[in-house]
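User: My instructor asked us to take a sequence, write out its structure as tokens, and then describe one feature of it. I'm not sure where to start. Here is the sequence I was given:
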Amino acid sequence: MKVALFVTCLNDTMFPSTGQATVRLLRRLGVDVEFPKAQTCCGQMHVNSGYVPEAIPVVRTFVEAFAGYDAVVTPSGSCAASARYQHKIVAERSGDPALIREVEAISPRVYELSEFLVDVLGLVDVGDRCQRLLKAVHGITMVDLPEAEECCGFGGTFSMKNPDVSVAMGSDKARHVRESGAEVLVAGDNSCLMHIRGLLTRERAGVRVMHLAEILASQEAAA
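Assistant: Let's start with the prediction itself. The structure tokens for your sequence are:
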């Protein structure tokens, strides 16, 4: 299987250790992952802000960078969703039949990291992927996060356009994290973690924040 890492622009610029951990983890699992240097942004910011025409060249770059790969793995749920669903909207808006075909071919092969580990590699039974993967890690005690299904309030440009609402939602999430008694908060998307980390830090909660890839890669190293 020919696999590519889509590191995302946020991880590349602010959280490179997440991309590095993803590569270490996949290679230790026997996956020969490559990093196409032509990759840039998925275009999610453009689409979410209503700039769909401006996202067309971004999507073109994406499909060109990842053409020929059997799977594209990304340590970001929101960017995976953008490639899987928003790219179709952008391609259709372009009116370019070739781009539409390329997106239809590549989008189904884009996987969020935990999805790839569970659904493609079959590491654990299908279910709540992140929790099942973490439960398999030695030395970790999982605790339930109250209202876990609630959004953290980041939402990319939403946090800039609606800062008061964003902070209120994030504060609720931070409160639930504190109430859980957890020492470490783990998630599969650094944009959400960045938002919650900022609030927890300002509250001096003493809770560490880590991406799922860094937890799993550390476990592999220890093993």
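For the description part of your assignment, you could build on this observation: Residues 3-124 form one domain. Try explaining in your own words what that tells you about the chain.
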